[in-house]
Write a structure and sequence with these properties.
about 375 residues, alpha+beta, CBS-domain, 2 domains, 4-stranded mixed β-sheet, 12 strands
């Protein structure tokens, strides 16, 4: 959501998040007016903004190459990449299954900073070559050759900085994953994640304290790092809880259906009566039952669909007018963690559970979270 596909590279969808579109002009402005490393010292404002825009675009191209490095190694180890998204703080590769092997995870994490370092060295070598080719006087004035030379230095410097920053041993940076891989050689994957997350949180707190006195941007980065470490720890614990649980163990077997010809008002009455927040829509208008043929189910309707309808239209509109016709199902023998991944990927709160061509249950995010709470107490 809030991201848009712009390309596909090696089969991987490349997306830009709306936050990226907001921050890109800010980077252009900073590079155009900053006098030391940017182009603010050039008398020509047109030249300053032209090369400021080039620097901003090339920086995010470098970030994309960094993420492609991660993705290619992950694909080599058999993982599937959902997409790469460029957003406010850089880029993220959506890897569906991160290798649990410490050596593989370490290699996959390190290749991103390695790509940045290689790019940085190449740009700095090109900068050194440009200084030899162009006369010293040209480098100091506002000519194109001077601006181009400054651009090469800036990109080299920023890529080296990007590589070094990502080696900080804290999630969600690559250094946090390398640290987890190191811990995982000596303990369980969950415990390794907990230790690495603790290190990341401590670094974030120290960074925040320093940033409070030095630079407010450090505080924002510290907040980002702390949240990333917490989310990684929680996600790993959740995966561990559900890794041996099957969908059939946590699903609701008694499925309540609604007719496509029911009014939205009648659907609200049914929600109040049954206390469910989503229903499959059956052409037979079955109220409840098990083993209903999937071919008879024509959509899903949820409370979110209903809340978009003004009160005065609820008796005029029918369920078929507001339902989602696309059905997303999961086999009853699938792992529960796969169901959670499917919900997140598709932005939904429930899945129809099938056995062959029949609907045998329904699984909601609430069902999964309740199961996690119970399993955590049992452990």
């Amino acid at each position: 959501m809030w991201s848009y596909k712009i390309a596909r590279i090696w089969g991987i969808p490349i997306r830009i998040h709306v936050t990226f579109l907001l921050v890109l002009p800010l980077f252009v402005l900073v590079f155009a007016v900053e006098p030391t490393f940017g182009f603010g010292a050039f008398p020509s404002k047109a030249l300053s903004y032209l090369f400021g825009a080039m620097a901003a675009v090339m920086l995010f191209v470098s970030v994309l190459l960094h993420e492609l490095g991660h993705s290619l190694v992950a694909m080599h180890y058999g993982s599937r990449i959902s997409d790469i998204t460029l957003f406010l703080f850089g880029g993220v590769s959506q890897i569906e299954e991160v290798p649990k092997d410490p050596e593989k995870e370490a290699r996959m994490a390190f290749v991103g900073p390695l790509v940045s370092f290689v790019l940085g060295v190449l740009f700095l070598m090109a900068y050194a070559g440009a200084k030899l080719v162009f006369a010293p006087a040209d480098v100091e004035n506002s000519s194109l050759s001077s601006a181009f030379t400054r651009l090469l230095f800036l990109l080299g410097y920023l890529n080296v900085l990007l590589g070094a920053f990502n080696l900080i041993p804290a999630f969600p940076m690559d250094g946090g994953r390398i640290l987890r891989a190191y811990f995982a050689k000596h303990t369980s994957y969950v415990e390794a994640t907990r230790r690495a997350a603790s290190v990341g949180k401590l670094l974030a707190l120290l960074m925040g304290i320093v940033g409070f006195f030095v630079n407010i941007w450090l505080v924002l980065i510290a907040f980002f790092v702390y949240i990333g470490a917490s989310e990684e720890e929680a996600a790993t614990q959740l995966s561990s809880m559900l890794e041996d649980v099957r969908v059939k163990d946590v699903m609701s077997e008694e499925v309540v259906y609604v007719s496509p010809e029911a009014t939205v008002g009648q659907l609200l009455d049914l929600m109040f009566e049954t206390k469910h927040m989503g229903y499959p829509v059956s052409v037979e208008g079955v109220e409840s039952g098990k083993g209903v043929p999937l071919s008879r189910v024509v959509g899903m309707v949820t409370f979110n669909d209903v809340r978009k309808i003004p009160p005065h239209d609820r008796e005029a509109l029918l369920v078929r007018d507001i339902m989602t016709p696309e059905l997303i199902t999961i086999p009853k023998d699938a792992h529960a963690i796969e169901a959670l991944k499917s919900m997140r990927k598709n932005g939904i709160g429930r899945l129809l559970v099938v056995d062959g061509d029949e609907v045998v249950g329904i699984l909601s995010r609430s069902d999964l979270m309740r199961s996690v709470d119970i399993l955590s107490l049992r452990r």
